[in-house]
Amino acid sequence: MRPLLFFVFLLSSFLIIPNNANASHAAYGGSIHWECHNGKYVFFLKRYIACNSLTWSYTPLSLSITGNPLPRNDQNISFSTITLRPDSSKWLSYNSGVFDPLCSRGTLVIDCNASSNPPGFYGSYITYFYQSDTLELNGLPPSSGWVFSHVLFDATGGENFSSNNLALRAVMYKDSASVALNQCIDNSPKFPEVSENAFCKDRLAEYSEAVIDSDGDSIVYYLDQPLRQVSPGIYQTVSFKTGYSYTNPLPDTNQAAGNQPLNYDPRSGLVTFKANSWGSSPLPPSNAFFVKYTAETYREGVLLAKVSHERPLLIFDCPDLPNLVSNSAPTIRPPFSHVGGTIQNFSDTVIAGNSVIMNLSVLDTNTFNGQFQNIRIELSGQKLSSVYSNNALCPEPSDTLCASLIAAPSFYQNRQVYYYSALASWNSFISWQTDCDDLNSNGKARTHYFYIKASDDHCPVPAEVTKVVAITVLPDSVNCPNVSTSLDERLNAFSQLNLYPNPSNGLVFIEGLNESVDFQIFNIQGKLMKVGRLAANQNQLELPDADGMYFVSIRDESGNERTYKLIKQ
Description:
mainly beta; six-stranded mixed sheet
C-alpha cells in the first residue's frame, strides 16, 4: 500500500498555481475554417482562453488576408480583413464554451466554474466562437493560396516553447482548373468543436484529431510548425525549447525510457502518445505542451485547403482507483474476425454495392468502491450518420445513404454530441450499405475511417481510448460499370514503383508513381522520423540527415501499402 504522503503530494500538486495564473487572460490556441452558405463564404474562428482569464471581453475580432492578388468583394474592391462577430448562440449551446472532463467518481475535479484557486480551473479553458457575415471572395488565389490569419497576442507559453503571440492560420488554394472562385463551392475541412485537453501521466493516450470535410475530399494530416507574427503579414517559426520540436512536442525517450513520442497518423488523424516524465517543471499539472495539428484536403491530387488546430495537451498525475489499482481505459474489441475468429483487426475491404457490418464491443473491468464504472461511447466518421441511427442524415450532403446503428443514442446538450452509455460493457454494430459514390472521384478504391471513442467516469481525468476502423471500398464492374477493376490496379498499386539508387546519399529518385501517396520513414529502431505526401509524378524523396538504414512505408488512397528498405551512406 502506498503511504499517505503520496496522497498529500498528489493533492498539493493540484494546488500549485502556474506562472501564468495571474495574467489578465491567457490564450491557449484555436482554429479557423470556412463554409459555403448559398454560394457565399462564412468564416469561423474559435479561440481558447484559460478559465482564470477573468478580464476577457467577448467582442468582435478580425481575420487578416495575405496573398497577391487579394480577393475582391461584391463591389469589385480588394480587401485584406474580415470582421468576425461573437457567435453567442453557438457559445451558449455549447455550455458557454466550457468543456471540462465528464466524470462523477472521485473527489478531485477539473471545473472552470470553481473558485479562483486550484484544483478547479487547472486544465480548464473556455472556447469562444466567432463567425463572419456571408461574403464574396472574387478572383483567383495565388499559387501559395490566400492565407487567413488571426494573431493571439495574449498567447501563453508551454513546457515545450515560449511565445507571447501565436498566429492561427488557414489557407485556401485555387482549384485544378484555376478558375476564379467568385462563388463558394468548396468547404474547408473542420476540426471538431469539442476537444479533449486533459490526459494522464503513465497512461497511453489515443484520441482523434480528425476533421470532417463535407465535400468528401481526400485528407492528409501532419504535425506543423507554429508561427508567430513579427509584423503585419510577416511570420516566423516559434522556437522550441531544448529536447522539443514541432514534430516532437512531448517528452520522448531521451527524457525517460517509458515515454512514447506523439504520433499523428497521416491517414486517419489518430493521435497516440505516452508521457511518463514531466520535463523541467517540478510539479504537475503546470505542464502544458502545445501542439499544432494540420489537415490538408485534396481532390484528384490537387491541394484545395489547409486548416490547423493549435492547442495545449495538459498532463496530470491522475489518482489511482480506491483499491490502489491504476485506472485503465475501456477495451474496444476489433470489429472484424477472420479465419474462425483467430485473426481480429480494425480494417476490412468491401466491393462497392455490398454491405459491411462493424461489430462494436466495449468492456471496462475496473471498479470504484466495488461498483463497475459507467462507460460512454461516442462515434464519428465521414460516412457515419450525424445522429448515429438515421442513415439518411450524413456528414456529406451529397450522400443519400450512410452508415448507421439501430439503437437511438442519447444527446448531451452541453456538448451538442450524441453518445451511448452503459455500465461496464456495451455491444452494438454499425451497418453500411456502400455504393459507387464511396469510391474516389476517379473511380478508384478509397479508404474510409470510423472512430470509436470509449471513456469511463473516473475523476479528475476519465480514462479513454479511441480506435479507428478503416474500410476500403473497391470498385466493381457490375455495380460501377465505368470503372476499371483489374486486379493489379485494385490490389497492387506499387507494381511499377521503383526507388533508386540504394544505397544513396539521402536523395532517392522515384520511378513509376502515377498517383498521390502518403509516406512514413522509420529508422532501424522503429522510430518515426518523417511523414509526408508525394504528389503524382513526384520523382524525389529525401531521407533524414543521419546515415543509416531506413524503412519507407508508402500507402496509396486505396489502402494498399508497401515498405522499402533504403540505406543512406
